[in-house]
Design goal:
3 helices, 6-stranded antiparallel sheet, 39% helix, alpha+beta
Length: 140
């Protein structure tokens, strides 16, 4: 079965939250229709991480590493997602070679670290941009 052929589908309206940061992972998702916004909370600020479109998968990192969600995901317009439940995901993972599992887990961990760093860089960039804009306004 292809991930796009998941039997469970969920529909979300514009702005509805699909995944909440800090909650334990039970499912991964594939965007079947529409697009979603990924955000992360850093130092009490919400930072945009990216946008995912049809065919993109999210929520897989938590299932692979058995950890809490690392970001928030919300619908941009009307969205339909296919749900990949933990049992199906674990079944697919169990079909992998034992040699591949540590490699995949290592990639997930590195991706988490990279996402965290990029989010912090984005926050610093926004802060710097705001400071520059405030100086520009003062000079006028």
């Amino acid at each position: 079965m292809s991930i796009k052929d998941t039997p469970i589908r969920q529909h979300y309206a514009d702005g509805e939250v699909i995944i909440t940061e800090g909650i334990m992972s039970n499912n991964a998702y594939v965007v079947l229709k529409g697009s979603v916004r990924v955000t992360k909370k850093i130092d009490k600020k919400v930072v945009a991480v990216g946008t995912l479109k049809e065919g993109d998968v999210f929520g897989e990192m938590g299932l692979l590493s058995k950890s809490v969600r690392t970001a928030n995901v919300s619908a941009m317009g009307d969205v339909t997602v296919g749900v990949i439940d933990k049992e199906s995901f674990d079944e697919a993972m169990n079909g992998l070679s034992e040699d591949l599992k540590p490699i995949i887990l290592s990639l997930v961990e590195r991706l988490k670290i990279t996402t965290e760093l990029l989010t912090r860089i984005g926050l610093e960039l926004e802060t710097t941009r705001n400071k520059i804009n405030s100086y520009s306004l003062k000079e006028k």
